[in-house]
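Quality-control log, excerpt.
Job 1 of 2 completed; input and output follow.
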Amino acid sequence: RWLFDQAVCTLYAFCGVLFGLSSLASLTVLSTVCCLKVCFPAYGRCWDVRFSHGHAAGLLLAVWAYALAFAAAPLARWGSYGPEPYGTACCITWEPSSREATLYILALLICCYLLPCLLILASYALILWTVWASRRALRRH
């Protein structure tokens, strides 16, 4: 069973969601930046813009803001945190108790799982296609 009170349960779940979402969002941003660099090398050169430390800092800030927004939503009563079914840890309460909780779970599914996974898959598929096309063009010459 969960050994601590509800406040510690909420903090534990909040940290798990925050770090999990920031990890997936970081991987999504990394795959997208790699895709832009490999597949569109002229991207950014049109305006003489180079990927800099400022760009990286901005992307990291966006990743953490995105993760914080979804992790803090249950603290603002959009969804909730509670003990897992076995009671040994805490996480998002997956059984919706209201329409708002259902919307939060759907938003998590779409914005925090499906969209990042699709972006990662599309990025790496485009990278593979670009490498394949480049090898094919090289063999022709």
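Job 2 of 2 completed; input and output follow.
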Amino acid sequence: VFAYLEMLELQAHEAAVKQEEKLLQEEKLARLKARVEELRLQRDELQAKVDLQEKRQLEKEGATSNPAQLNPQAVLQWKIKSLQAMLQVFYLTGIGGKLTRQGVCFCISTAYEGTYLDSYYLDLLTKSEVRIYRHSVPTFIPLKQIAKQYLQTDIRRFLSVLSDHLNAYVGRRYQADQLQEHFSDQIKGTLQRNSLCNLLVFNYNMSSKSKTFPFNVRLLYGDPCCSLPTEVIVSCKSDAPSSLTETATAHSDLFRRMPLHKAFRSFSSAGET
């Protein structure tokens, strides 16, 4: 009896430690999210100030609003000033850069939920027209399409959209990696995913009255700038109890609202798997 009580006391202590760690992580995440929002506001304010300064400078110099109508030297100076202002604006948003002899080199740092992941580099030429010289962006990111739409008209928008694509991609990949790392004992077989990680297919086990029923999951991320799925299908075999069918519906809702590994942790801690 004493041994059993000691075991229960140890389990209670471990549960309390885990709960405390979870609360600390949630508090840290809340602080990071608040800091991100604060930095975004600062970025917007800086961008508004830079836009106003550029407008005043152009009016002061008697230049037209269209830089293409200026002489080549004036166009080059206008581009350099714009790039310098842009570097200042994006410094607080995970996008850094420096001027080069031929243009500017940007570094886009990606993160997911406070965890810094990969950095991607983009070297732009600006002497004649703005174009991409070299880069480390993965081939499955639609860089050419984004460049065609924004690069010549709005470099800030181009970098912002590209950053959204990259951060969403690394976020989806991070979730899949976390699932395989921490819940491999519950995953049946191999988690299937494509290069962009916008389609995930895997099986996981559910137990009911000493019987195990495999669930099949298909997650489709229709929005390339989002790290949560737009379409979720969770299915089980026809001979599964009706209670598991209801559970599959609940899990489907969790997969839509929460990161993949957090959804698993949620119903795993509840003893459903």
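Post-run check on job 2. Residues 72 and 128 are 9 Å apart (CA to CA).
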